[in-house]
Amino acid sequence: MILQPASRREVSRIAIGSGVCACIQILVFWVLSLLGIGAFSYRIVTGTVGGSLMAVLCFAQLCVTLQKATAHAADEKFVKTQVRNGYNLRKLIQILWVIAAFVIPWINVLAAMIPLFFPNVVIYYLQIKGKLFPAGEASAAPAAPTAPADAAKPENADDPDDDLGPFEV
Question: What's this model's pTM, rounded to 2 decimal places?
Answer without folding.
Answer: 0.73
